[in-house]
């Protein structure tokens, strides 16, 4: 009998396609209320958010996560109903099994176990749960954090239960994420007849060398915690569809995944410099979707490293890889943030699954981290 397995199943069976919560937070609130958590529901539009706190003292240790899941994709790729939790051999299958209903279940059961054993621990435990992580991420964690900042409710440590492990549970934890910075580049030329190029200015030809130079540029070398910044062009559009017309402009979309070794301002200046060197007439619209964040060595990372060593017998790797996460909203408040969760191999895929043995192990890891942070 595993309480974490049961709760994970109960959450998977609630088909919470982003931004729907489908009753997951009601179930979570009910569990936390029994532990005498103070529960606040903070819905924004279609998005359900939950802030729950046990205790009033500091330090405040928060478990954070999301109840929403990504779409299933074509159902014939699944061996079982994605919203009917199915145990097969050593694995629990279902949408959200790894991302991140098992993480949610493990943190709830860990808090239950910890509070029962240590009713007078010196500090507070919080839960920050949203149904808007897989979607726009505008009305979720960001809004709850804004509300907390407004009333000076300060998170000291935050554990996000996103899938982070690669082979063995705990072999990798995330201590930060790269930033994401989009650009929409328009290169202006002059439209004309393809037989009279001297009367036109072909923006496709004009852009080749500049785009190649942007693609080949080394933006930084990364640093101790971050891999080098990457630049990728995602879309190029030019041409009218006619075969005898030189188009008037070219549009290119590109994205930086950037480290803390460079700033957004530097990236903008360097892109403009390369384009100017090629004497292009251009406009760029920029959109910063997330700043990079990094938790450097602190009490939470140390606690996680020690617990993983003691329980799993391995040294965890501190990583900043992967996409962005809601940690980007929590870290700027000054909280130490890590992501520690189950195996990430099947997230967002058909037949998403989690190893059942990892469920109780993850629960125990979370509980032991609480013990270390509160010195109980
Ligand atoms: Zn997730």
Kindly describe this structure.
The protein is an alpha+beta fold. It has two domains: 3-177 and 292-374, Aminopeptidase (3-Layer(aba) Sandwich), CATH 3.40.630; 179-290, Alpha-Beta Plaits (2-Layer Sandwich). It contains nine helices and 19 strands. It has helices at 3-12, 24-34, 97-117, 141-150, 203-216, 264-277, 299-312, 327-330, 356-374; strands at 38-41, 49-54, 60-66, 86-88, 91-93, 124-130, 157-160, 172-174, 176-177, 179-188, 192-193, 230-238, 245-246, 249-258, 281-290, 293-294, 317-319, 336-339, 353-355. The strands form six sheets. It has a six-stranded mixed β-sheet with strand order 1-2-6-3-7-18, with helices on one face. A four-stranded antiparallel β-sheet has the order 12-14-10-15. A three-stranded antiparallel β-sheet has the order 4-5-19. α1 crosses α3 (97-117) and α5 packs across α6. The two termini are 27 Å apart. Residues 66, 99-100, 133, 162 line the site of zinc ion.
In short:
The protein has 376 residues and is α+β, with helices and mostly antiparallel strands. It is 31% helix and 25% strand.
